[in-house]
Design a protein that fits this description.
The protein is built from twelve helices and eleven strands. The protein is α/β, with parallel strands linked by helices. The strands form two sheets. It has a six-stranded antiparallel beta sheet with strand order 6-7-9-8-10-11, sandwiched between helices. Strands 3-2-1-4-5 form a five-stranded parallel beta sheet, with helices on both faces. A hairpin with a 4-residue loop joins strand 10 and strand 11. Helix 4 crosses helix 5. The radius of gyration is 24 Å and the shape is elongated. Bound molecules: iron/sulfur cluster.
């Protein structure tokens, strides 16, 4: 007999792991869809993520979706608005559920499941919001929340007897006690924190992203990753500077230097600089002084190499910062 197939929206958090366990233990042929947020390096191997290792541990096979331009366009203009910072939680969930629905159709599965719990989060998991997400995603009757299933209307695969509803749960609210007990029972350790790793909920990252959306129309997922690296300075409306904070970031910026309009390498111990926009001759002194402020300029080691997008380069002499207050006012 052919096994019932399902798709699970998998995040690596405890709730999605428990939802997976409840379904896999019923013998369902489950595929997890893991959506990789744009905060990870472009050369990331998703198999190396802790969440991938956890999925393997519970016998959940994964498909990956890497958040790209389409996702970032949604973050820029979320129809349901933002949460406390620049987190578009309702539209983000809708987006991922739609991706899971596409996978469901592709692999001929019966339903999409998620680890959502009724009433757990203020905005995205209230009962009426869960119903709204189900309606808008086009999954009416096929969106299953195994952890709260018994307090929600039965889904089509439950009614058809493809899923045993009696083996699903009735968890609701913000408490985590039952989930923790289940984790212990299943021997699940090392799961990630709910919303952990989502920088859209971070106050400082939100400032950078709002600045980015204000000044740049065209973008890629790599631009969003760049917002996670280094110190950022808005020099003027058409010029932005990123400088590394340590060796790891210098290496990372160097790897991505092909995306920069200009790149500066110090010939002394100091930060690399990644520049986007229109660099005018009169901006150079300021940029030079910012880099010099964070570097160890000496009498003999004091030059910078400025490389343009066309790979032409020239040497400039490092000059320490004249006025720190101007520099600080440009910091994002
Ligand atoms: S916390 Fe981040 S990843 Fe989670 S739903 Fe909100 S925006 Fe999406």
């Amino acid at each position: 007999m052919q096994r019932v197939k399902g798709v699970l929206l998998y995040s690596g958090g405890l709730d999605s792991i428990l939802a997976a366990k409840l379904l896999i233990d019923q013998g369902i042929d489950l595929t997890g869809l893991y959506c990789i947020l744009p905060f990870y390096p472009p050369d990331l191997n998703p198999e190396d993520l802790e969440s991938s290792k956890l999925a393997k541990q519970i016998g959940l096979k994964l498909e990956y979706y890497r958040c790209d331009k389409e996702y970032i366009e949604m973050v820029k203009n979320p129809p349901h608005g933002y949460g406390k910072h620049i987190n578009p939680c309702i539209d983000c969930k809708l987006f991922f559920i739609k991706k899971a629905a596409e996978l469901m159709l592709k692999i001929n599965a019966d339903f999409v499941a998620s680890g959502e719990v009724v009433g757990q989060r203020p905005m995205s998991q209230l009962k009426h919001t869960l119903n709204h997400i189900e309606k808008v995603s086009g999954l009416k009757g096929r969106l299953l929340r195994p952890l709260s299933a018994k307090i929600l209307e039965p889904t089509i695969p439950e009614i058809e007897g493809k899923i045993d509803r009696s083996r699903l749960l009735d968890i609701s609210g913000r408490g985590r006690k039952r989930q923790m007990e289940l984790a212990k029972q299943y021997g699940i350790l090392n799961y990630s924190h709910p919303a952990g790793g989502c920088l859209f909920t971070d106050r400082f990252f939100s400032v950078r992203l709002r600045d980015f959306f204000t000044h740049q129309d065209a973008f890629t997922a790599t631009d969003i990753y760049l917002l996670t690296i280094g110190r950022h300075f808005r020099i003027n409306g058409s010029l932005k500077l990123i400088i590394s904070r340590d060796e790891r970031e210098s290496i990372e910026l160097e790897k991505l230097s092909g995306f920069a309009d200009y790149f500066i390498r110090p010939e002394f111990k100091g930060p690399s600089a990644f520049i986007t926009g229109v660099l005018k001759e009169e901006d150079l002194d300021l940029i030079n002084s910012i880099i010099s402020r964070y570097g160890k300029v000496t009498e003999t080691e004091n030059s910078l190499t400025l490389i343009s997008k066309d790979k032409s380069s020239r040497e400039i002499t490092a000059e320490p910062a004249a006025d720190d207050t101007i520099i600080d006012s440009m910091r994002l």
